[in-house]
Specification:
Length: 475
């Protein structure tokens, strides 16, 4: 078919075919401009198409290019230097060695199997990116789905077939924008975190402890404390966090599942997205990017999300409270420890710019609001039953303190003290309810069972038995 005989539908199909088939570089910019029906620069449109083709080629099953996330994050992380100096590594190795000794006096949880490390920002990105991808994927998928739906709703009826045919491409647009934004957030976060456990969730591979010397220097610049004391405190806190997750191997999955449970409940505000799609100008693609950054596309949390977030906050607070108490006990020899501890608490409560950007992007804040209350609970437990009984609460998930225990540490302490004395635990409402349930089931089972009289009757011969062949009566 000659070009002049083609209608708009055939032209659009040819455009999509050549785009998917790798021929975007050969597309005529004037053709692109005519097809769009908009007064935009054809060269700019051709550049956009090249970017879309690249994103499409690298997109995964859900239309999301996580390779783009990694490239973007590493580009930002590696801007200010790639190496850890010998002096930095030596100083932190010495701090880790002494911190290990002190920590072993404060907790019954054993040392790590692998030595802690000093790593660059880029190495932190590479080590933690699989977890970021797992946490962000539900939100990225939701955004890609919503973008596809919104753009389809805005297309004229006669173009619906074409839009649906290009649905995977539109998913790729939304997924690629999200992946790029996540890469920027993780890259900027690599400039803020001081250690592997700094964010509060288990980002590092199991049993790994690490400090980022570049960020450690920035963190201590305004504290006016000796650098060796700061290094000892940060190393002790990082080792405590890593030891806990290595000891309680179930805890990592528990935290990740709580985060992903919240993330799966995130749904894009389709009304806001459709409104933006109606006025979307391809010559101003930054509008969608700014909407992703600001969190404008994420609606108010549902009741289920609020409940999931409360559970997650209690879990993170329980972890951070234990880390704080153990670190404080282990660093009691450091004169500057109280000042450093307060700086760490304040920093965790406020969060940095990149952490706040992460909250806007995925609708999730990782700051434990009840860390002080959780730390007070762990302090009360430590003083009552000692470190060994305290740390045994991490052996199994059902032993871990609950939100109620954070509210009322006295109840937890009473149970632990009774257990230490060998006494039976005090019954509560749940125990009583379970006992009633078991009693009801036992009663029902006894009612259904045959009585002794029934058994005797079953054994007595009946008239039919007497008339049977071989019986004495028949003879």
């Amino acid at each position: 078919m000659a070009d002049e005989d083609r209608g708009p539908e055939e032209e659009f199909q040819e455009l999509i075919r050549r785009l998917f088939g790798g021929g975007a570089g050969d597309l005529d910019p004037e053709q692109l401009s005519e097809l769009t029906g908009m007064n935009i620069d054809p060269a700019m449109m051709q550049t956009v198409m090249r970017h879309l083709q690249g994103a499409f080629a690298g997109a995964g099953q859900n239309g999301i290019s996580w390779d783009m996330t990694q490239r973007q994050a590493l580009h930002i992380a590696n801007q200010d230097g790639l190496v850890v100096t010998t002096g930095q590594r030596t100083d932190l190795d010495q701090a880790f060695a002494l911190a290990n000794l002190w920590l072993s006096e404060a907790t019954a949880i054993s040392e790590l199997a692998s030595p802690p490390r000093s790593i660059t920002r880029g190495a932190w990105v590479e080590a933690t990116l699989p977890v970021w991808q797992e946490l962000a994927e539900p939100v990225a998928t939701s955004i890609a789905d919503a973008l596809t739906s919104a753009l389809s709703a805005q297309a004229p009826e006669e173009m619906q077939g074409l839009v649906q045919g290009a649905g995977r491409l539109m998913r790729t647009v939304g997924g690629s924008l999200f992946a790029s934004q996540l890469g920027q957030v993780v890259g900027n976060l690599s400039k803020e975190v001081v250690s592997g456990g700094d964010v509060g969730i288990p980002l590092m591979p199991d049993g790994d402890a690490a400090i980022l010397p570049q960020n450690f220097a920035d963190f201590g610049r305004d504290l006016e404390v000796p650098e060796d004391q700061l290094a000892l405190y940060v190393a002790t806190r990082e080792l405590a966090h890593a030891r806990l997750f290595r000891h309680a191997r179930w805890l990592r999955l528990h935290v990740i599942s709580q985060v992903t449970e919240f993330a799966r409940g995130v749904h894009v505000d389709t009304d806001a997205l459709e409104e933006m799609a109606a006025r979307f100008d391809p010559s101003e693609p930054e509008e969608l990017r700014r909407a992703l950054e600001s969190g404008a596309l994420l609606p108010e949390r549902s009741e289920a999300q609020k409940a999931a977030l409360a559970r997650l906050e209690n879990l993170l607070a329980t972890i951070e409270g234990w880390v704080e108490v153990v670190t404080d006990d282990a660093t009691s020899r450091l004169p500057a420890a109280p000042r450093i501890a307060e700086a760490v608490r304040r920093r965790r409560a406020v969060g940095g710019p990149a952490e706040r950007a992460l909250g806007s992007l995925v609708g999730l804040e990782l700051r434990p609001r009840r860390m002080r209350e959780a730390a007070a609970m762990w302090r009360a437990v430590t003083e009552a039953v000692g470190p060994t009984a305290r740390d045994a609460l991490w052996d199994y998930p059902d032993l871990m303190p609950s939100a109620t225990d954070i509210d009322d540490p006295a109840g937890l302490v009473a149970r632990l003290e009774a257990r230490a004395r060998g006494e039976a635990p005090v019954r509560d409402e749940m125990d009583d309810a379970l006992a009633r349930l078991l009693a009801d089931e036992d009663g029902a089972a006894q009612a259904d069972a045959p009585s002794p009289e029934d058994d005797a009757a079953a054994e007595r011969p009946t008239d039919e038995d007497d008339d049977a062949p071989g019986s004495s009566r028949s003879e």
